[in-house]
Specification:
The complex is a heteropentamer. Helix content of chain D is about 25%, strand content about 25%. In chain D, strands 8-9-10-1-11-22-12 form a seven-stranded mixed beta sheet. In chain D, strands 14-21-13-20-18-19 form a six-stranded mixed beta sheet. The termini of chain D are close together. By secondary structure, chain D is an alpha+beta fold. Classes of the chains: A mainly alpha, B alpha/beta, C alpha/beta, D alpha+beta, E mainly alpha. Bound molecules: adenosine-5'-triphosphate (ATP) (2 copies) and magnesium ion (MG) (2 copies). Chain B: Its main location: membrane.
């Protein structure tokens, strides 16, 4: 009998328009979302907006401090840091986003199957998933890269695997919860086949929290990519990625700190923006309850 | 004992409650009825001073309790009243007790807080009260956890907590809605007895007209955040003045004769965000005239009761 | 008068899964229930929370598998049907659920929800989809303009009407109504009940009406089954008959009349409902029964029609 | 009177100070154990526990005179029997190859010991000078068993093992009885330092910060990247020792287009060693033009065979080989782009170097795609013959490294060039097996080296230096450092600054 | 009985560990390369290599190798490291205390600070404080550990010289690593605490607590916190794997030994017995963590206790 209260509260929170537009509603959402949009545009148009070729070396002008024409200075090979940071957005964002997309797809499939079929299958999947979930993600990623070899593709898959458990758990939790909803029983009672239930009801309803958590995980993915870069894995030189730049010889921290300070700052700001916007989305979609506990 | 006058409650820009007035004497039972969302719980929360918990605020009106206006009572003083002279019984016994704590300490807390008892005195009191509420083996019950008990039992524990400090006024917000009919009957009977034995004043909030008919001395009928009619229980049932009250009574299956027909009230209850102008009931009222859509009706005295209607007493 | 539904010795046990940590426990949610549902009649089932009403409804619709018993629907043995046959048959037997708030997929518009039965059953509606939706909505007294709304945009009563429209879309013969108004306000309850009355008359439906509200059942139904802890303890062929089972009597006593002049002293039942997991031997009501005798605690009474309508009591009133 | 020394990053992870069985030893080992002979930076051998030695003309026996008055840390005497007890311990260990040519050890008298050889081994002295041939006290060795080198260690060295926290630090205390230093040290008595702590600091910048803040006094193996910063620190001095290795780029001769010797040669000519030393190494270290470190006599090859930057020649060679420059700056032959895989292993020094190499290869129209592997995986790649070019390095101050990297018996790894050739094998066999003494050996290896150079199997790039930085407020470290590495002989001479 | 439950749960670990050991063994042997190349040095002959392969049984079929390993494991023998030349049990025993000290303290730090921050941000009425907390919490999880570690060293060890730059000697050397790791954990714990607190605040019984006249602090500490801690405890218990193995980068930067560093080093050298031993240890710790979490939940929540026993 309190559902009126719920609806009223949502209306009062501005429960109008699409979730994304609602997430943009608050000033925090505007700033964070705006930054992210800008970042994605930067990544897409990187080749046109970088002032220099990100790979062009000028060994005579290595480690130049920020100034003109290299606004953020140059690295030890004399490459323009600004151009590399801009291009790095491309690598870091696409690696992380692709990884999470893969992770979501696989995780949803596994989680949905586990949640839907239940029984031994579910227990087996969830045992493995819980175990990997409790393993430090960096270890999972490191082992995986060690097995299939370095490179952006393997980094992408490593990140995907490191976060697979999270999405599997989340999806399964959603499905198990949804399975108990009356409308599922009602649909079964209409004579619906299992695939109809799964594809037309369970998955569409489970997807929103998974996407939002996925969005938050993109931030974690960027950090993980950076950490893999610290171990010399990930983007292969001279391709710039933020992680690779941040860890390109920590000696640089003293000699030419701008080489690793700037990418670090960009990572921090991006991840914060991702988190803030994700929080706004959660609020807009009103799915805080559903995300919890996974 | 308790007199509420022109109470208005707001959450930010919306005012889900306005113009609620009623009064209550010692030993009296006042029923507040109305459909879901009509503001019954808000009224209870206002009296208990618990509105700030959910972010609400009393914007107008007064709540006089024993000669003192509660609307501007500072929180520490209010805290003394709550659980002390003002007891609350909530709607859902299933979720009203802390599931992680044993029953005993939860009830003891009241006596310790308001009567300044030590642990063993408080426990003795708890056992005594549980006993008077006809709970078998009160001693062992104290060591049980809430989930080990049935709904009716839990509701009695909640009542015991409300009674532990000998309150003057008991506010019961739908105390039986979540319970089975047989259990409901027990609880209602229990409350009735308590009012008589202890000379309590009881505010009984419910959406069930039959419960009101069975227990109350006075009734307030609420609709869309407003009290639209109040008066002695007989008057309300015999000669309801407000069309809404009339319609509400018509919705109850008497279950005895075959020739009656339920019709319901056409339309839907308005939402806080689109409370109609004028008389809140006018869009669903068969008697509505132009004025009903523009002017908020004032209370019109009728017998011992009052109804806020431009055309009171008109047959539906 | 033919029986649309014949239920014989229907039982359902829920087993709490055992494991290395605890014993498996069985619980009889529905225990040896038999009754007939004649075509065109409204049979009511009343009982307190947890007595197995919803489980009975699910069993009848084969949403869960019975542990025991037979089900005949329109002369056919339901339990012998394959899942595919059963899916087809579902078009003939529909259900309206207790909680309208979660009975429609929140991502579906009203029109999509109402059209889903056709999609699921792979049937073409008689007319164009939009018209069919409008017709169905009108049939349950809803404004066809609501078709494009989402469930969260409409009220509980409206949702329940959508639920009914969905259930009726395929023109079933049997409608199981599981406390369709329990979560609605009285004014809305009255609307829904009168709608159901009207639909029964218009469409010649057969209802199994489940409720915990005895006065509502007495008002709405032709026959009443009273359930207590999974068993039918009394079958009243007529709603005006006085109770023979002490439990039914208590139930009637506990219902208040909406009239302050009819106030009476309530004699409340003492004792607790026993846990369905470890039922005592004998009559489950014995511990709370004012008329209980020694035999009540040792022998389970069976439904018998000696001396009046069917009642399961050693010592009927 | 203490000093704290941070290991070079290549020395980390030793789990035991047992020189006989370990496959990984660090600099601290040389402070605990003395060797029979020492090797200086100029590759000459110096007496230590052996005062003199004699090789028979046929190379089939070696006789060592031992120093008198040497005692182990546990008080037992060091004599010929100690040596006779020690050599057999190598049997069945991973280090057995060091003494594989020794057939038997004969105690001639208390201070004279004779190695009877199963074949001539001109390289014996080199082996004896290695850390793995520090001499443990036989009694303690047998007694402690597996724990020797972990919970305790007994040698004759200037320091005794006090405490060993694996992966963290090793504390050594002075052996006050020490009076048998080699002539590589000034100080012939006990060490000036009463205690030396060696610390393992994996991250080089952390190690640098420790030096800066006084957490360590001496930093071994400072990466070249840091030299510039270190120079800016007023209280830090840096000593450069000639390195003992080469960074180079092996070329897989079986992988097209490198099956064409012209392409291989052109690749070598594209690399500008001098520019690399000047830019990424800040002028520290030396360019490498052949496969061996310059202090080895075998490195002194025909100058025509040295690999030196020559873009014009490289371009001409490629054109000759049919690789034509395309509009996008990458050469093409028969529709195939001159795009090759350039592997390297993780570790910043290699990744930076590889990136410059990549840029330089671009100058001759060769596109190199870099992949960075961990060391185990890259070896697997080599073995599976999936590589074309690789940037790597070795650290070995002996010409038998040529056999190691170019012997046809070790194709894939370590023979990353995948090179096998009859003439090469013949020269290898001669150098490895038919050298009776060191002069012969030098001549044979030089011939082998020259032949290898003529085949363009790799591109030499850089001879690193070993950089040792220390806090001048805390310690004085002799400069130059003698010996091939930072070892006991240097630590003996370290004094504490006032 | 809770004890009975714990006993059977521990018993269940045995079959699960077996399946996990198979997976771990497979993973380890999927890695390209082998440990032998890390053993042989310049001067050894190709035959020496072959001999080593035979010596360590690496030429045997995988199944045999597995059975040998697990068989020895069964007798409490973790085997001998191939490259690191020590009994694996010794290596783990040497590194474990460091991991436990660092991980345990970081764990304690992030739990305590996280719970405090989460509580403040869930109970404060000041928007500014709440946003500030939120920003602070966010910051913790947004920068890679190695980066934070370097900045910490630069500021606290080099500039202020409050703590040593690196090493594992004494308590002061623990401060910076603990802070670095703990910072990330604080974010997680604070977030969970905050959400859990906000949730239970909405529960019906809380209103009744207010209606009893209990002062806010009593409600918070006596009733809300126990509820909020339930999910926090679960999350924390599941993070035990992080305590033991998650500190690799921080260990690296601060030059500390530890299980994570050992594992990474052994992984790089393909030191199979060590990698297997460490991973199995971690997996056991993780399962034990789950168990502890479940038991803690059961101990804290009578409903769960009843359902499980
Ligand atoms: N925290 C809140 N914020 C905004 N609006 C609120 C809040 N709490 C209640 N309301 C609004 O106030 C109105 C009255 O609510 P109240 O809970 O008093 O109704 P009620 O009569 O008790 O209903 P029910 O029978 O469902 O308990 C509702 O329309 C609701 O939407
Ligand atoms: N899927 C299930 N598994 C286990 N037990 C169940 C299941 N479904 C129902 N039960 C149990 O069976 C008993 C009867 O449940 P049922 O839902 O049929 O009661 P009901 O009469 O419909 O009650 P209500 O009036 O509360 O809806 C209850 O004790 C319930 O806990
Ligand atoms: Mg209410
Ligand atoms: Mg039910």
């Amino acid at each position: 009998m309190s559902s009126m209260t719920g609806i009223a509260a949502r209306w009062m929170a501005g429960y109008r328009g699409t979730p994304v537009s609602r997430a943009f509603g608050s000033w925090l959402g505007k700033i964070a979302g705006g930054f992210l949009v800008l970042l994605v545009l930067t990544a897409i148009f990187a080749p046109w907006i970088t002032p220099f070729d990100y790979a062009a070396q000028d060994l005579t002008n290595g480690n130049a401090p920020p100034g003109w024409p290299h606004l953020l200075g140059t690295d030890q090979f004399g490459r323009d840091v600004l151009s590399r940071v801009i291009y790095g957005a491309r690598t870091s964002l696409s690696v992380s986003a692709t990884a999470i997309a893969i992770s979501i797809t696989a995780g949803m499939t596994l989680g949905a199957a586990a949640g839907y079929f239940g029984g031994f299958f579910e227990r087996a999947v969830m045992t493995v998933v819980d175990l990997t979930w409790s393993f430090p993600d960096i270890l999972i990623a490191l082992i995986f890269v060690a097995i299939i070899g370095p490179g952006l593709t393997s980094t992408t898959f490593a990140i995907a695997i490191a976060y697979l458990a999270q999405f599997t758990r989340l999806t399964r939790a959603q499905i198990v919860r949804l399975k108990r909803e009356t409308f599922i029983e009602a649909t079964i009672n209409l004579g619906a086949k299992p695939h109809h239930i799964l594809l037309k009801h369970l998955l569409p309803n489970a997807i929103a929290p998974v996407i939002v958590v996925g969005m938050l995980a993109i931030g974690d993915g960027i950090v993980l990519e950076a950490t893999l870069g610290f171990f010399g894995l990930g983007a292969q030189p001279p391709t710039p990625s933020w992680g690779a730049m941040m860890s390109s010889g920590t000696a640089q921290l003293f000699l030419s700190p701008w080489v690793i300070i700037f990418p670090g700052v960009v990572v921090a700001v991006t991840v914060i923006a991702v988190n803030l916007f994700g929080d706004e989305l959660i609020r807009a979609l009103d799915i805080r309850d559903r995300i919890r506990g996974s | 004992m308790l007199e509420v006058r022109d109470l208005e409650v707001a959450f930010g820009p919306v005012a889900p409650l306005s113009g609620v007035s009623f009064s209550l004497e010692k030993g009296e039972t006042l029923g507040i009825v109305g459909e879901s969302g009509s503001g019954k719980s808000l009224t209870a929360m206002s009296v208990m001073g618990l509105l700030p918990l959910s972010g609400g605020r009393i914007t107008a009106g007064s709540i006089m309790f024993d000669g003192q206006d509660l609307t501007n009572l500072p929180e520490p003083a209010y805290r003394k009243l709550r659980g002390g002279r003002l007891g609350l019984i909530t709607q859902n016994p299933m979720t009203s007790l802390d599931p992680l704590q044993k029953i005993g300490p939860q009830v003891d807390a009241v006596a310790r807080l308001h009567l300044g008892m030590n642990a063993s005195e408080a426990r003795a009191r708890t056992v005594e009260i549980l006993g008077t509420l006809r709970i078998p083996e009160p001693g062992t019950i104290c060591n049980r956890y809430p989930h080990q008990m049935s709904g009716g039992m839990k509701q009695r524990i909640v009542i015991a907590m409300a009674l532990a400090a000998d309150p003057d006024v008991l506010v019961a917000d739908e105390p039986t809605t979540a319970l089975d009919v047989t259990v409901q009957a027990q609880i209602i009977r229990l409350l009735d007895d308590l009012v008589k034995e202890r000379d309590l004043s009881l505010v009984l909030i419910t959406h069930d007209m039959s419960v009101v008919a069975q227990t109350c001395d006075k009734v307030v009928v609420m609709y869309a955040g407003r009290a639209i009619e109040h008066g002695p229980v007989e008057a309300i049932f015999d000669a309801p003045q407000h069309p809404y009250t009339q319609a509400l009574i018509g919705c109850i299956p008497k279950g005895l004769s075959d020739d009656e027909h339920l019709t319901g009230i056409p339309g839907t209850v308005p939402n806080v965000l689109n409370y109609p102008k004028g008389c809140p009931f006018h869009p669903r009222c068969t008697q509505a005239k132009e004025i009903c859509a523009t002017d908020v009706p004032a209370f019109v005295q009728h017998g011992n009761g009052q109804a806020a209607c431009h055309f009171p007493g008109a047959p539906q | 008068m033919t029986n649309l539904l014949e239920v014989r010795n229907l039982s359902k046990q829920f087993k709490s899964p055992g494991g290395p940590f605890r014993k498996a426990r069985a619980m009889h949610a529905v225990n040896d229930v038999s009754f007939d549902l004649p075509k065109g009649r409204v049979v009511g089932v009343v009982g307190e929370s947890g007595c197995g009403k919803s489980t009975l409804a699910r069993l009848i619709l084969r949403l869960i598998e019975p542990t025991d018993g037979t089900l005949r629907f329109d002369g056919e043995d339901l339990r012998a049907k394959s899942p595919a046959q059963m899916r087809k048959l579902r078009a003939n037997m529909q259900m309206v659920f207790q909680d309208p708030y979660s009975a429609i997929d929140p991502r579906y518009t009203i029109s999509r929800a109402v059209m889903e039965p056709f999609v699921v059953q792979d049937r073409k509606p008689a007319s164009k989809p939009e018209e069919e939706v409008a017709a169905l909505l009108r049939m349950v007294g809803l404004d066809p303009g609501l078709a494009s709304s989402f469930p969260h945009q409409i009220s509980g009563g409206q949702k329940q009407r959508v639920g009914i429209a969905r259930a009726l879309a395929l023109r079933p013969q049997l409608l199981v109504l599981d406390e369709p108004t329990a979560s609605l306000d009285v004014s809305v309850q009255a609307q829904i009940i009168s709608l159901l009355e009207q639909l029964r008359d218009d469409l010649g439906l057969t209802y199994l009406f489940i409720s915990h509200d005895l006065s509502l059942v007495r008002y709405f139904c032709d026959e009443i089954l009273v359930m207590y802890l999974g068993r039918v303890v009394e079958a009243l062929p007529d709603t005006d008959l006085p109770a023979r089972h002490p439990y039914t009597a208590t139930l009637m006593d506990s219902t208040f009349a909406p009239d302050p002049k009819l106030r009476r002293i309530i004699t409340p039942l003492e004792g607790e409902v026993p846990s369905p997991f470890d039922l005592p031997p004998g009559c489950a009501f014995a511990d709370r029964c004012p008329r209980a005798a020694a035999i009540c605690r040792t022998e389970t009474p069976v439904l018998s029609s000696d001396g009046g309508h069917a009642v399961a009591c050693h010592n009927p009133i | 009177q203490e000093a704290t020394i941070a290991f070079a990053s290549g020395e980390l992870g030793a789990t035991s100070y047992n020189p006989v069985t370990s496959s990984n030893l660090n600099s601290a080992t040389s402070l605990i154990y003395d060797r029979l002979v020492e090797q200086d930076a100029d590759q000459s051998y110096h007496p230590h526990l052996a005062t003199s030695w004699e090789e028979s003309a046929d190379g089939m026996s070696w006789t060592f005179k031992l120093k008198e008055g040497v005692t182990f840390h546990d008080g037992t005497e060091f004599n010929a029997q100690s040596v006779a007890d020690w050599i057999p311990d190598f049997a069945d260990t991973e280090n057995a190859f060091l003494v594989a040519a020794i057939d038997a050890v004969e105690v001639v008298d208390n201070l004279t010991v004779k190695f009877v050889m199963s074949r001539p081994e001109p390289n014996l002295l080199y082996n004896l000078a290695s850390s793995f041939m520090g001499i443990p006290g036989a009694a303690a060795y047998d007694e402690m068993g597996d724990n020797f080198g972990v919970t305790g260690a007994v040698g004759t060295g200037p320091f005794k093992l006090d405490r060993f926290d694996i992966g963290l630090e090793t504390v050594l205390v002075r052996n006050d009885d020490y009076a048998w230093a080699s002539d590589l040290s000034e100080n012939q008595g006990a060490a000036h330092l009463a205690q030396v702590t060696f610390r393992e600091i994996p991250d080089q910048s952390t190690a640098f910060l420790e030096l800066k803040t006084g957490g360590v006094d001496i930093l071994l193996g400072v990466p070249t990247d840091f030299l510039q910063i270190l120079k800016a620190e007023s209280n830090v001095a840096v000593i450069q020792m000639p390195g003992t290795g080469i960074n180079y780029m092996p070329i897989n001769v079986t992988a097209p287009p490198f099956d064409d010797i012209k392409v291989r040669q052109a690749t070598g000519l594209a690399i500008n060693q001098e520019a690399i030393v000047a830019s990424i190494y800040n002028g520290v270290g030396a360019p490498a033009h052949n496969f061996l470190i310059s202090s080895l006599p075998e490195a002194d090859v025909d100058p025509a065979l040295d690999v030196r930057h020559d873009l014009d020649k490289a371009n001409a060679l490629l054109k000759d080989a049919g690789w034509i420059m395309d509009s996008d700056g990458v050469r093409v032959k028969d529709g195939t782009r001159l795009s090759v895989k350039l592997f390297t292993q993780n570790g910043t020094e290699f990744t930076s170097l590889t990136q410059v190499v990549q840029a330089q290869l671009a100058d001759i129209g060769m596109e190199a795609i870099i992949t960075v592997f961990d060391s185990s995986t890259i070896r697997d790649e080599y073995k599976e013959n999936r590589h074309q070019l690789a940037v790597r390095g070795y650290d070995w101050n002996n010409s038998d490294i040529l056999d190691w990297f170019f012997s046809g018996k070790r194709l894939g790894y370590p023979n990353v060039s995948m090179w096998t050739d009859a003439e090469g094998q013949r020269l290898n066999d001669v150098a490895m097996e038919e050298s009776k003494n060191s002069e012969e050996r030098i001549a044979n290896f030089k011939a082998y080296h020259e032949y290898i150079l003529s085949q363009h199997l790799f591109v030499p790039i850089y001879q690193p230096t070993t950089n040792i930085a220390y806090n001048t407020n805390k310690v004085n470290v002799p400069d130059p450092i003698r010996g091939t590495r930072f070892r006991a002989q240097t630590v003996l001479d370290i004094t504490v600054a006032e | 009985m809770l004890w009975r439950y714990i006993f059977f749960r521990v018993l269940m670990l045995i079959p699960v560990s077996f399946s996990i050991s198979v997976v771990i063994f497979m993973i380890v042997h999927l890695l390209p390369g082998d440990p032998i190349d890390n053993l042989i040095r310049v001067g050894s002959s190709p035959d020496d290599r072959a001999a080593l392969i035979t010596k360590y049984g690496l030429d045997q079929p995988l199944a045999i190798q597995y059975l040998r390993w697990i068989g020895a494991m069964f007798q409490g023998d973790f085997g001998e490291a191939i490259v690191l030349r020590r009994p694996v049990a010794d290596l783990i025993a040497q590194n474990l205390p460091y991991s436990l000290a660092l991980g345990g303290l970081a764990f304690a730090f992030s739990s305590i600070v996280g719970i405090i921050l989460g509580t403040i941000s869930a109970t404060t009425r000041s928007k500014i404080v709440e946003q500030f907390m939120r920003g602070f919490i966010l910051l913790g999880s947004t920068v890679p550990g190695f980066w934070l570690a370097l900045l910490m060293i630069l500021f606290f060890a080099v500039q202020l010289q409050w703590f040593p730059v690196s090493g594992a000697g004494g308590w002061s050397a623990l401060v910076l690593p603990v802070l670095t790791i703990g910072f990330g954990g604080v974010a997680l714990v604070a977030r969970v605490t905050r959400v859990a607190l906000l949730d239970v605040k909405r529960e019906d019984f809380v209103m009744l607590l207010h209606a009893k006249g209990l002062p806010s602090y009593k409600i918070l500490f006596g009733h809300l916190m126990p509820h909020a801690l339930l999910p926090v405890v679960t999350i924390l218990a599941l993070r035990i794997g992080w305590i033991l193995g998650g500190a690799v980068t921080v260990e690296f930067v601060f030059g500390r030994p530890g299980l994570g560093s050992l594992l990474i080093r052994a992984l790089g050298q393909r030191d199979y017995p060590v990698v297997q031993g460490c991973l199995l240890m971690l997996a056991l710790a993780v399962m034990l963590g789950t168990l502890i979490g479940d038991v803690a939940q059961a101990a804290m929540d009578p409903r769960i206790r009843e359902a499980k026993t």
